[in-house]
Amino acid sequence: MTQAIRSILIVGGGTAGWLAATYLQRTLCGDPAAPVSIRLVESPEVPTIGVGEATVPTLAATLHALGIPEPLLFARTEATLKNGVRFIGWRQGGDAASDRFDHPFDVPMMHEGYSSLVHWLNLTQRGLLRAPMGDCCSVQTALMEGLRSPKLMDSAGYLAPVPYGYHIDAGLLADLLRETAVARGVIHTPGTVSAVHTGPEGISGLILADGRPLQADLYVDCTGFAGLLIDRALGVPWLSYADHLLCDRAVACPVAHEDEAPALRPYTTATAEAAGWRWEIDLQSRRGTGYVYASAHCSDDEAVATLLRSHGSRTRLADPRLLRMRIGHRARVWEKNCLSLGLASGFIEPLESTGIYLIEHALMQFVDYLPGAGNNSRRQATYNRLIGDLYDELRDFIVMHYVLSQRRDTPFWREATDAARISPALADLLALWQEKVPQATDINRRMSLFSANNYFYILAGMHQLPLAGAAQGAHIAPDRSDAALRQVAAVRRAALMQSPTMADYARKQRGAA
Ligand code: FAD
Question: Mind telling me which InterPro entries this protein's record contains (predicted)?
C-alpha cells in the first residue's frame, strides 16, 4: 500500500465495524482538499456476536472524542457506570463473604510521597493490619460497596472525579454509532459479501451476493470470528492462546431485575465456577449474565445448568445462547491493504472487559501509523508488533488471575493453575513480585492500560504478597502509615456522602438526553 488513502471499505457492522466507521470518519475526513469516502457493508443475514457489555475507562474518552453526548448513552444504550470488577471465589472457591476482592479503576492515593499501597503493605507486613488492600487504598471500592456512581450528580460531560467504564447493551451502542456515522457521511450498504478478490496489493475487490462489486484503497475486516478478509482471503495465520487460557465457550442469558426500582451494581461481578467463571452486569432494565467455560471440562448442558441455577428466582428474558470463543490473535492484524479489527483480529476472554478496549486502541494506533504516500512497510511492521505485544500483555494479565489462585478442587482449576500456562515474561514478573512491590518499570511492554497498580490489586486480592515488598516504605513509622490510610478512609467516607446511587444517577442522565 503506497498511495494516500481516498476510500475505505469496512466489512461488518458489529461494535468493531461501527466504532471504526465513526472513528475513521472523525479522524480522517476533516480535510476538504483530500476527501476520504467511507463505506460500511454489513450482512442482514449474519448476526453480530451480541455480547460485550462491560468496558474500561478508555471508552469514555473515545466517545468524548467522537462528540457523542454522554446522556445519549444513558437514553439509548441501557448504560450504567462501572467502578471496577468484583472477583468472587477466585482464591479458594469460597462465597462472597469469605472469598472476594475488588479490582477498582482508581490509582491508590498518595500520602507523604508514597502510594497508599506502600503504607498498606508496611502495616500488613508488620502484622498491624488485616484489612484488604482494595478497602484501604482505593476510593472506588467504597463506591462499589455503597452501590454509588463514580460520577457526581452535577459532573459535567465526561468529567468525573475517578476513572469509570460503562456497562452497555453492545447492540444498542452499535445502533447509536451507526446513526452517528451515517449522519456524518459514512455510506451504509446492507449486503452480504459473497466473494473476495486478491492481488499483489492485498484485497482487490469484493462482490456482494446481489452481484454488486465494491472496491476501495483500504479494507477493514470487522466480520467477527469469520475473518472473511484477513483470514479466508489473505490467509494471515492465527496465533492461538489455547495453551495459556483454557476457556473456549460461553453461554449468555439476560435476566430481569428483582424489582422495578433495583439498586444497580456499579461494578462487574466475576464469580469463579467449576470450569471457568460467570459474569453479572447490571444494565438499567436488566442484568446480563453469562458463563465462560472450558469445553474440555464442562459440557454445554452443564454450563447452561450452572448459569440458570445462578439466576435463582429471577425471570429469564431470553433463552440461554451458546457461543464459541477463539482465543488468540492474527499474526499480523494489518496485512497489505487490509486492517482487521475486533473479533476478526483477535480475542481474549472478557474477564477484564478488554474486547472493546482492544478495538479502540487498535484504531487509535492505526491512525498514527497510517501511511500517507510512500512505502509504509516499516510503519506496518511496527504497528503489527505493537498490537501483537498488547495481546500478549493482556493474555498474561488474564492468565495471572488463574495461576495465582489456590483452587485445585476441580480438573479445570488444576489445569488452569498449572505453571505450564505461564509465559516466560509472566513467570519473570511473578518471581520478581514475590520479592518486591510491582512498579511500572518492571513491565517491559507497557502497552496495555493495566499498570503495576492493577497487577498489585490482583496479587493482593489473591493474597500473594511480596515477602519484603515494603522495603521502600519499611523505614516509615507505623503511625505515619496509619495516618495515610486514615486519610484514604476519610476520602472514602466523603465520596460515599457525595456520590448518588447508580440507579439515581442513571435515571437523571436518561432524563437529560
Ligand atoms: P461481530 O459482532 O460478530 O460482528 C460481525 C459483523 O460482520 C456483523 O455485522 C456481520 O453481519 C458481519 N459479517 C459477517 N460476515 C459477513 C459477510 N459475509 N458479509 C457482510 N458482513 C458480514 N467485549 C467487551 O469489551 N466487554 C465484554 O464484556 C465482552 N464480553 C464478551 C463476552 C463473550 C462471551 C464474547 C464472545 C465476547 C465478548 N466481548 C466483550 C467482545 C465483544 O463482543 C466484541 O469485541 C465486539 O462485540 C466486537 O465484535 P465484532 O464487531 O468484531 O464482531
Answer: FAD/NAD-bd_sf (IPR036188), Flavin-dep_Halogenase_NPB (IPR050816), Flavin_halogenase (IPR006905), Trp_halogen (IPR033856)
